[in-house]
Amino acid sequence: MVSKQDIEDRIINVLREQFLKYSDEVLDTYQNKINSLVRWYVSKLPAHVKKSEADDIASEAKIAFVDSLKTWDPRKGELWTFVSVRLKGSMQDYLRKRGGDPVAGMQEWISSAAHLYLAFNKQIIYHDKIDDVLHVEHAMEALDEKEKAVIDGYYKKDKTFKDIGKDIGLSESQVSRICKEATTKMRCYLKEHPEEDKQVRE
């Protein structure tokens, strides 16, 4: 005797086959929602990434949409509810895979930039209001490699001066001195280059 579960599974398999057969038509039906989701996701990224990766991210979302038709189970929710989650994951994975490019690990980069901004605000390194975490992150370009390692370890990774010293082969007091010099250098950089914040926004 065929169970209810078997019947439902067969129906769902037929539905999936039809969706895949007419995937272009299904894609057209959801195109506006896909575009809106892609625009929302891309809007969260830095300006240079929007310019260089927006089209590829949109293509990746379309591919993910069609792939998701193969695994959607209508018993567990509406198609778009399921698909939207898959699309977000696909776009994130796409950026993570850009390992050798300047946009490598963009999600992690955004997170660390935000962490740096919040940490700097807490330490009152820059007294004027900073609206864009990218401006703070950009100031790290003024540092040498050793200074970057100290700032990265102390502010982003919450390491102690002692632990940072072990990583880069310096004493705790040396790391402390470098941290003070680096933060002063970044503060000066931020005050001397306010126009770059405007360029980032554009």
UniProtKB/TrEMBL annotation:
One MF term in GO for this entry?
sigma factor activity
Q: Which GO terms describe its biological process?
A: DNA-templated transcription initiation
For this UniProt record, give its keywords in alphabetical order, as a comma-separated list.
Answer: DNA-binding, Sigma factor, Transcription, Transcription regulation
Q: Which residues form a coiled coil?
A: none
RNA polymerase sigma-70 region domain ranges (all copies) = 35-99, 139-187
Protein name (database record): RNA polymerase sigma-70 region 4 domain-containing protein
Lineage, broadest ranks: Bacteria, Bacillati, Saganbacteria
